[in-house]
Amino acid sequence: MDSPTGDGRAAASGPPVSPEPVPWQRITVGVPGPEFEARAPGQYAFDFPDSECDGWSTPELALRFASVRGAKHRYYRQPRQDAARAAMHESTGGVVFAVADGVSSASNAELGAVEACRAAVERMLELLSGDPRPLDFPDVARHAAERLRDLARWSPEGAEPEPHEIAARYATTLVAGVVYPDPAGPVVELCRIGDSGAWILDRSNGEYRALFDPKTGAGASVVPSTVTPLPHVPDPLEPAGARLTPHQVLLVGTDGFADPFGDGDGLVGSLFARGLAEPPPPLWLAHLLDFSRETFDDDRSLLVVWPHADGRAR
């Protein structure tokens, strides 16, 4: 408010001063890992940025995803080998998505993860435009596997690749799925190849329910040391499904998130229960996902879908 001057006029005030922006400090969970400036990845990895995120809403659903490079890859000059993609199907209003974790032993794991996600989303959109329910996930998985085969065919040798050759270059896990809007609550359908995970978070109490058998935590009797990824397509595929209430949120994540998350009853689960109570800005989800915790240095990807409580985008 302007203060009066001696002659009755209001003193002129200057322009408002914007607050100084404060850089985000990395979130620490428990004992932090080492801090260092990320090293530049190889010169031909420029198409795979350290971090990426996206976020948008439909009339019934809100979506966010983020993918961040782990400390191990930042230190050893390797690109991020996780990927995530999502799209809205125009006529049904469904949200289709894919999350992939390139297998570290594959020579071009980062490309395999991205292309598997792209192929899965493209095929799900095509299938929904034809016969929307139920979604033919074996077809989606075969389409993604064929994309990896096509990548291998484009090699300089030009020969028809053997399955083991495709896997050696582009092997990746994959979770593909769709969330359909429904008057009784959004319906989730998904499948997975490999060891990535999916969970339902109940925002009313902060509890999680795993949609796939976990590889760690109380529900796992054996912790597998290997996975069978694409281009192999299991028969049958491992499916999962759920119907979301207004208080529930769908999470889909790679094992870089799943391993420190465990069964969700620890510090990481608590952090994300608070952070996902409402859809955050996409950049904030990436910041949240890039938490520092000792020994957990893998790439992390997380995709989240919220139902709008009033059925309308806010």
Describe this structure in words.
A hairpin with a 3-residue loop joins strand 1 (51-57) and strand 2 (61-68). This protein is α+β, with helices and mostly antiparallel strands and 314 residues long. The two termini are 34 Å apart. The longest helix has 22 residues, at 109-130. The chain has helices at 71-75, 109-130, 137-153, 163-170, 255-261, 267-275, 282-289; strands at residues 51-57, 61-68, 82-88, 95-102, 172-180, 187-193, 197-202, 207-210, 238-243, 248-253, 300-307. The strands form two sheets. The chain has a six-stranded antiparallel beta sheet. Strands 3-4-5-6-9 form a five-stranded antiparallel beta sheet, covered by helices on one side.
Low-confidence stretches: 1-5, 217-225
The first-to-last residue Cα distance is 34 Å
Overall mean confidence score, pLDDT? 90
Order of helices and strands: EEHEEHHHEEEEEEHHHE
Beta strand %: 15-25%
How would you write the strand order of the largest sheet?
1-2-11-10-7-8
The level 1 CATH classification is Alpha Beta
* CATH homologous superfamily title: PPM-type phosphatase domain
Task: Determine the CATH topology.
Answer: Phosphatase 2c, domain 1
The Cα radius of gyration reads 22 Å
Helix content: 10-25%
Number of DSSP helices? 7
CATH architecture level-2 label: 4-Layer Sandwich
Q: How many separate domains?
A: 1
Structural class: alpha+beta
